Amino acid sequence: RRMCQDSLVAIEAGQGVKVVHPPASVPPVTSSSRALMLVLGHATCASCLLVINKWALKEFPFVWTLTTLQFTFAAAVTWAAGRVGLLEVEPLEWDRLKQFFPAAGMFFITITAGNAVVSASNVDTFIVMRSVVPIPCAILEALVLKEPYPPARSWAGLAIVLLGAVGFCLANQGLLVGSVAWVLLYLVLMPLDGVLIKQLVSASGLSPWGLVLYNNVCAAAPGLLFSALLEVSSPQQAAQMASVLQARPILVGAPILLSCWSGLAISYFQMNVRKAISSTAFMVLGVSNKVLSVLLNQLARMDANCGAASVGSVLASILG
């Protein structure tokens, strides 16, 4: 009876009865405190993971296999924790997997391209490349999702980002020669991926850890194929990988394991922060959190590029 009263209001009027239906239900809105927690968690994990990946790739220079290990590890841990009741994780369903696969497969190639840039050049190059992504993402989001274009102040900030990227390239001529193909692939796929995943996670209805499971399972599947075809397709390649692991098992295994745990953490934060903010805002967040990456990279001395012009250009891109 109460439901009937809530859903239908009858008002006596001169011409009869006017029926007023309740407003349509709207999807739950993420609270500001939870959104802040997700943003801070993502910023911390992303900043650390970039430097950790550089370390892991120095010791284990197999970019496809490392990325596949990270996605497979995250999927396995999330599934196991759900099975024993530690986390709320929806079971895998074929229809949902098919929905996730295109975006997750593109996401795997995008992350691999980013790792390849870090491996072939340095952390600063990746940061500048990542800083440029919000520009095409803002345009794509307006065209595809019908979101409003950024205001003039935002475009001014994006222009500073672009100037920082140009300044970095001028200060490091030839630095990108070994990774230009990966840079172009990343710059094409990252904006597309951001818009696709935003649509997907907003409409999925999955729990926070359910998003992690589906995304990592669908990303790990093409990873296993690419790793088998490109890095362990012959006995010689498999022997080379095994020799790297056997020569220094602890020194090689430690950064790989640390990158896998870091990948699991960032997978949770990034999949859920995408539900709370727009695609362009997520891309800008991915840039702004790199201040810590620059600091960690300089302290760890992962790269030889420490010139004032290079570091200044990177900071200009981040601040923009």
**Helical proportion?**
over 70%
> Terminal Cα separation, in Å?
57 Å
**Shape estimate:** globular
- Helix-strand string: HEEHHHHHHHHHHHHH
The number of E-state strands comes to 2
Percent of sequence in beta strands = under 5%
Strand line-up across the major sheet: 1-2
Rg, rounded, reads 23 Å
Rounded average pLDDT:
76
What profile does the largest beta sheet have? 2 strands, antiparallel
Structural class call reads mainly alpha
- Annotation field: number of helices: 14
Molecular structure report:
β1 and β2 (16-20) form a beta hairpin. The relative contact order is 0.19. It is globular, with a radius of gyration of 23 Å. It has helices at 2-7, 32-59, 63-83, 94-120, 123-132, 134-144, 152-171, 180-204, 208-230, 235-247, 249-276, 279-288, 290-300, 308-319, and strands at 9-13, 16-20. A two-stranded antiparallel ribbon has the order 1-2. 77% of the residues lie in helices and 3% in strands. The longest helix is centred in the N-terminal third of the chain and has 28 residues, at 32-59. It is mainly alpha-helical.
